[in-house]
Design goal:
4-stranded antiparallel beta sheet; alpha+beta; 144 residues
Length: 144
């Protein structure tokens, strides 16, 4: 009866031991994320505990913000994540900044300045564009 007990215990412990394939398997991770908005910017905060700055990649491609990360230990990938967000047209993608501290990734997304309304004065004399247009029409080059 003792031999059955030990055989059963061996079987249980072997089932817990990781196979080489299981050791290589990575875990998918979905970081929690918050977005705050002010008149001048958006601030995205993402919890990425255990991820180093070097393992995180941020890209802005048009209106798509993609954040991906890879956590390694001893050359083994332990977990990865990828999150993508569509950013509003108002975001100036060329001025995005990121900061990583204490397991929190913060991404600053500034809004492009909004053009202010401009009063246009109506002129009675042709000048600028209209003077050039008149000169072109007068030379018979229109329609070419």
């Amino acid at each position: 009866m003792n031999s059955n007990f030990f055989e059963e215990m061996d079987r249980i412990f072997e089932s817990f031991a990781a196979t080489p394939d299981q050791e290589k398997r990575e875990q998918l991770f979905t970081p929690a994320c918050e977005v705050a908005e002010s008149a001048e910017h958006y601030l995205l905060s993402m919890d990425v505990p255990g991820f180093k700055k070097e393992g995180i990649k941020i890209e802005v491609n048009g209106k798509l913000l993609t954040i991906s990360g890879e956590r390694k230990r001893d050359e083994k990938v332990l977990s990865t994540f990828t999150r993508s967000f569509t950013v509003p047209d108002t975001v100036d993608g060329s001025k995005v900044e990121a900061h990583h501290e204490d397991g929190v990734l913060s991404i600053y997304l500034p809004k492009a300045p909004i053009a202010k309304a401009q009063k246009i004065e109506i002129q009675t004399q042709k000048g600028g564009f209209f003077e050039k247009l008149n000169a072109t029409q007068g030379t018979g080059t229109e329609g070419n």
